[in-house]
Amino acid sequence: RWFWSSVGGLILCLPSSTNEDFFCLRLHFYLTKYQQVSVSKARAIIVLASDENADQSDARALRVVLSLTGVKEGLRGHVVVELCDLDNELLVKLVGGELIETVVAHDVIGRLMIQCALQPGLAQIWEDILGFENAEFYIKRWPQLDGLRFEDVFISFPEAVPCGVKVAASGGKIIINPNDDYVMKEGDEILVIAEDDDTYEPGPLLEVRKCFLPNVSSPPKYPEKILFCGWRRDIDDMIMVLEAFLAPGSQLWMFNDVPEKDREKRLLDGGLDLSGLTNLTLVHKEGNAVIRRHLEGLPLETFDSILILADESVEDSIVHSDSRSLATLLLIRDIQSKRLPSEDTASTPLRHCGFSHSSWIREMQQASDKSIIISEILDSRTRNLVSVSRISDYVLSNELVSMALAMVAEDKQINRVLEELFAEEGNELCIRPAEFYLYDQEELSFYDIMVRGRQRREIVIGYRLANMDRAVINPQCKQQLRNWSLDDVFVVISCDD
Fold first, then answer.
1. Going along 126-279, which residue ranges are E strands?
2. For the segment 147-157, what is each residue's pLDDT rounded down to a tens digit?
3. Which residues touch 333 (CB under 8 Å, ≥6 apart)?
4. What is the tens place of the pLDDT at every residue in 182-210?
5. How many CB atoms are closer than 10 A to CB 385?
6. What spatial distance separates the first Cα and last Cα of the chain, rounded to whole Å?
7. Phi, psi at residue 34, to the nearest 5°?
8. Which domains, and CATH codes, for the chain?
9. So what's the pLDDT on residue 33?
């Protein structure tokens, strides 16, 4: 089975599972077979993970990379490798060299789960950006923009939103959210969010009103109370990400069937420095997440967010893992529904949003006065079932990883962009209330709001109106005036410094 990219180039996928019905199945590891399918001419090669455990899958991927480096004619395209364990990434890059781009599926999902738990609504934004649905990252050179400052480039694309610069003088380093006074030089390229790579081009410079922002400061961070249900491989990495995001005094409750006496050793073996946790306190509870009486021993109605993790003990079986996650989700929701009516929780939001307006943020954060539940589902069919039934606030699955693989296959440079946006440091996707940028019912164009966002060192890439179900990324008609409400929200790329 051959896969063609949306722009006409051939993509050769190499599955490593022994029961998949692909012609390519019989080809990996054998150089002569690679030559039969002209692997050297493929524009991109995707090495998919197998259904085995993480180490076995990554070992197979490593062997495929080794064999690809031995192709006599060389490779025209790059190789995108789906890995399961972050610890194996360095070795694969060492073997494959500059041709290799890695996407560590487990790490990507873990980081997205945390981002979506702390900023409700981001799951839909990431699905739109990764899903080739009218809002994708593209990098292209525009010589006519040389000599312009980024603040002028920023409002030069009617059909795109510039997000950064690929700096030729720095070896092609991509700077997301650069300073307004950066001057475009020969060889520099522009990173944008656009519908497709042929749907945008720079237009004439516009005159946009530059007004002062409303005098609204960012609210302080409040301590959070988070619950992890299940013991996930690389859970130590997720704890370190949480430590970077959360305010001092936060708690992470860890509920799983790993004996408490063994947990500290496993976390230390994974590289977690427990003494270095200054914002986060770990609270250990032992039990089975699919047994109701064990779950009833937890204060489920008090958590800001609950993350249901694909448990390490059943990760070899997608069906078994999803069944456990689904059972845990249903039990938690049922326990919460029986407890909450008798307790005075409606008057006290679980998460301190810190904003006087924005009903959507309040709605998503309170999640009908329940904890926000983020479920990790491995099979996209199970994900669709859970999403339609609306029993979970957000469901993250390997489907997002597939989207990321496809995007990196289209353009390897985009991997640098995704890595920064997924990381706990640097620029990140955020949802901001309208009161940061405007006054109630103020008449502004989207360009006006983009320019105001630059005063906060932010890239405004979209919005969600109070009466809309979904956010709009890279809106069209950016010059059109609209009366905005303080219940609207904006999607931005913001630097945490």
1. 136-141, 160-167, 173-176, 189-194, 225-229, 250-256
2. 999 999 999 99
3. 370, 373, 391
4. 999 999 999 999 999 899 999 988 777 77
5. 15
6. 47
7. -60, -40
8. 3-107 (3.40.50.720), 220-352 (3.40.50), 424-495 (3.30.70)
9. 58
